[in-house]
Amino acid sequence: MLNLPTCWSCQYSFKWIQLLFMTGTKQCPSCGAKQYNTSRKKRKIVWIGPALATLMLVLLNIFHISLMNVLLLGLLLLLIALVISPFTYEFTDKNEGVF
Ligand SMILES: [Zn+2]
What we know:
The protein has three helices and three strands; from the N terminus they run αββααβ. It has helices spanning 16-19, 39-63, 67-88, and strands at 26-27, 34-37, 91-92. It has a three-stranded antiparallel sheet. Strand 1 and strand 2 (34-37) form a beta hairpin. Keywords: Membrane, Transmembrane, Transmembrane helix.
């Protein structure tokens, strides 16, 4: 089940579009509290890039598809990751850092 994150302070439900291009922290439009992504989720996001690159290399070797198609596929995967990324966020009041 995909759920959009809520404000840790006032339980305001963020809209998908508000989180689409979020980097670092976000301010709650309702109560003004700063939102930090939990480190657990951040770690997951950090791994998306290398995981995608590995997947693309594996596909290239197994199916012998052209580099152009692999790049297109990679672009598509990145787009999908971007679209679903707001659903992976979870906010706290503490900046926990990535590691
Ligand atoms: Zn709030």
